[in-house]
């Protein structure tokens, strides 16, 4: 049932191009000019009444929600807050009937996420669920559901569910933008065209897996490392760091690149690996100057950057892995893939149980 792969995690990483295609299937108009989310029951008038969005989730789904915040804010210009469900519930969140609460859950059974959904509804808010399990509790109780068609995810470490959640956010962001008129037709068409290219671009990243195996093996000798980035690169850095901790048990921290100098830079010492995400063109210069800060303290920097930016980024890093060029908002759907592979190969190199990491369960139904 692993279809020739050694582990479910690797199989699921390789299933991502299909998961992207299946999650987009039937949801994009033939002419590529609009999205079509027929399953949503919320009306256009309702969409126009939304004043704020709360995205609530746990773990990897929360990291997808961090990207979702940027997607919705930039496409629909509605203010978004993203929270971890176990915090949201207990901080008396200000939920009003004009708040759209989006819960994100692969399993649809995570106790804290389900409780957040109920709390939102109790306060008169509508809830949209992004979930991978059609008949799950979250799917049954939400007012609207966007299913991610990633297929069953068996490995404890989430991969294809996360990236399908990103696709769902892109689709929903475009849906809002179309109703609200916040983006012109050319921008919408451009985003859709770029989304259609993502599956093949992931395939090309997967073809380069052997290079990432080497990176993983070198990292596996270290006790601790850092992931840095700005904007959505920071959100992806957090997901990369969680994945690595979860299955390789190597300590790591994700940092907003500009925050390092406010304390954490003290931890950078000779030889420490730093994985720097550099996909946001308008932030290149800023991130490159943060890379210089860690290099000056002896860090070994592995850069993930857009193809075509090698000349600019290459000289600032020790090693560079190029990611196919896409629009800045869509970069997370590509840049996370090498990070998933690095975690996988690091876990393998250390001889851990990749699919069933210690202390963790696939579905967390306790609070
Ligand atoms: C990490 C991971 C977890 C889940 C989290 C939420 O790889 O899988 O962090 O993302 O437990 O689970 P769901 O999405 O089922 O609510």
UniProtKB/TrEMBL annotation:
The catalysed reaction is: D-fructose 6-phosphate + L-glutamine = D-glucosamine 6-phosphate + L-glutamate
The record's keywords, sorted A to Z, are: Aminotransferase, Cytoplasm, Glutamine amidotransferase, Repeat, Transferase
Q: What is its EC number?
A: 2.6.1.16
Top-tier EC class:
transferase
- Tell me which stretches of the chain form a coiled coil: none
Q: Its Gene Ontology molecular function terms?
A: transaminase activity
> Per the database record, which ranges form the SIS domain?
43-182, 215-357
Q: Which residues form the active site?
A: 362 (for fru-6p isomerization activity)
Q: Where in the cell is it found?
A: Cytoplasm
Q: What is its main location?
A: cytoplasm
Q: Does the keyword ATP-binding apply?
A: no
Q: Which domain of life is it from?
A: Bacteria
Q: What interactions and quaternary structure are annotated?
A: Homodimer.
Q: Explain the purpose of this protein.
A: Catalyzes the first step in hexosamine metabolism, converting fructose-6P into glucosamine-6P using glutamine as a nitrogen source.
The protein here is known as Glutamine--fructose-6-phosphate aminotransferase [isomerizing]
Gene name for this UniProt entry: glmS
